[in-house]
């Protein structure tokens, strides 16, 4: 009797596994089956059926999403909204032309071309700072460490690093190159700077890795690794991912750099239209297919940085207006619709609209659909 029970349990378990495999295969290959599943799990949502934040284009609002909040800055007041569109906090911020950057629970707001910036964690103002010169870019890591790129000084660029308490750690001065990107690793050990040299006949880009511990006492001798791009390449962005690996996007390729080695990750070609290095532990590439065997012109390629495994998403893809990522979310703006994908290339949410979508903002747990007079909220 006991043996019979074990056989029954094994048979039931095997049947469930087989059912899951068949359902997964059907979901990937059968669009009608996929549509039925998406409707059953309420993956499809539409305009005017979501929670909404009212805004006015006359106030020139600046909108950003981070963690599980959407923030709107107008007339010196930063308002935070949760997934139910409740105004959960309001902060007075003396910044009129803001740039925003975030990482998990931290948000940093800087005056574009100005001196002031502030750091916020879960809607609470932690500290404020100012620089000599003009802020051109500002970033924050998952622990609240901040890097600021400053121009309009006697140097072409100055990069300043701060810890999570607002204490300045060090400054790096660039006399012959311009810093376009910077980021601090999530273990707080390294600062990466992407810089460009325009002085010669051919543009050159370089990535420098600085040891924060060494730089505290001797900034001039704190560079522990560097990578120089191929001639004519301009670095457009960089972002720390796993451990001390920083992924650097140039005009035509993505390079991995860390404290002791460099590695080419992907080369772009004539079919590459968009690429993103900000999805958690992933690279995302939107490209035109070289052939139309699947009757789709475009595809999303998602590269897992740990396993190097590639996932593809090809269903219902047309040319996108923009691609944005945050955490595990990959969000595609198709002008009149938005698709939210997982890092495995599965559809998480699909949003449709009768009007043109102005823009989208993406946090780890929330997406905002922007119009002139409102923001509609997709809860992830």
Task: Describe this structure as you would to a colleague.
With 380 residues, the protein is mainly β. The chain has three helices and 33 strands. The protein has helices at residues 2-29, 31-40, 212-217; strands at residues 44-46, 52-54, 62-66, 69-74, 77-81, 87-92, 98-103, 106-111, 116-121, 124-130, 134-140, 146-151, 157-162, 168-174, 178-184, 190-197, 204-211, 223-228, 235-240, 246-250, 253-257, 262-267, 272-276, 282-288, 298-304, 310-313, 322-326, 329-333, 337-341, 347-352, 359-362, 366-370, 374-379. It has a five-stranded mixed sheet with strand order 1-30-29-28-27, with no helix packed on it. A four-stranded antiparallel sheet has the order 2-33-32-31, with no helix packed on it. It has a four-stranded antiparallel sheet with strand order 3-4-5-6, with no helix packed on it. A hairpin with a 4-residue loop joins strand 21 and strand 22 (262-267). Helix 1 (2-29) crosses helix 2 (31-40). 33% of the residues are buried.
Key features of this structure:
380 residues, four-stranded antiparallel sheet, mainly beta, 33 strands, five-stranded mixed sheet
Question: Quick recap of the structure?
Answer:
The protein has helices at residues 2-29, 31-40, 212-217; strands at 44-46, 52-54, 62-66, 69-74, 77-81, 87-92, 98-103, 106-111, 116-121, 124-130, 134-140, 146-151, 157-162, 168-174, 178-184, 190-197, 204-211, 223-228, 235-240, 246-250, 253-257, 262-267, 272-276, 282-288, 298-304, 310-313, 322-326, 329-333, 337-341, 347-352, 359-362, 366-370, 374-379.
């Amino acid at each position: 009797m006991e043996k019979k029970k074990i056989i029954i349990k094994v048979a039931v378990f095997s049947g469930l596994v087989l059912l899951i495999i068949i359902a997964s295969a059907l979901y990937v290959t059968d669009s009608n089956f996929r549509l039925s599943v998406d409707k059953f799990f309420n993956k499809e949502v539409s305009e005017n059926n979501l929670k909404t934040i009212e805004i006015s284009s006359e106030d020139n609002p600046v909108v950003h999403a981070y963690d599980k909040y959407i923030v709107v800055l107008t007339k010196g007041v930063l308002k935070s909204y949760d997934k139910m569109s409740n105004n959960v906090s309001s902060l007075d911020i003396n910044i009129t032309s803001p740039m925003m950057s975030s990482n998990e629970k931290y948000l940093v707001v800087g005056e574009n071309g100005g001196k002031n910036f502030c750091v916020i964690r879960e809607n609470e103002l932690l500290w404020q700072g100012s620089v000599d010169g003009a802020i051109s870019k500002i970033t924050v890591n998952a622990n609240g460490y901040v890097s600021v790129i400053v121009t309009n000084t006697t140097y072409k660029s100055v990069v300043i690093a701060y810890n999570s308490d607002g204490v300045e750690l060090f400054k790096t001065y660039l006399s012959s190159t311009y810093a376009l990107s910077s980021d601090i690793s999530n273990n707080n050990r390294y600062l990466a700077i992407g810089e460009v040299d325009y002085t010669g006949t051919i543009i050159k880009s370089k990535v420098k890795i600085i040891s924060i511990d060494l730089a505290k006492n001797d900034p001039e001798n704190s560079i522990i690794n560097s990578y120089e791009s191929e001639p004519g390449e301009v670095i457009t962005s960089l972002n720390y991912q796993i451990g001390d690996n920083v992924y650097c996007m140039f005009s035509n390729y993505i390079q991995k750099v860390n404290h002791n080695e460099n590695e080419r990750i992907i080369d772009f070609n004539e079919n590459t239209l968009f690429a993103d290095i900000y999805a958690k532990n992933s690279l995302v590439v939107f490209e035109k297919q070289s052939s139309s065997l699947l009757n789709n012109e475009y595809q999303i390629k998602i590269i897992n940085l740990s396993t190097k495994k590639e996932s593809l998403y090809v269903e219902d893809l047309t040319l996108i207006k923009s691609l944005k990522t945050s955490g595990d979310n990959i969000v595609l703006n198709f002008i009149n619709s938005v698709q939210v994908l997982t890092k495995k290339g599965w559809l998480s949410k699909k949003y449709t609209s009768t009007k043109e979508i102005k823009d989208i903002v993406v946090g780890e747990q929330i997406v905002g659909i922007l119009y002139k007079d409102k923001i509609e909220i997709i809860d992830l």
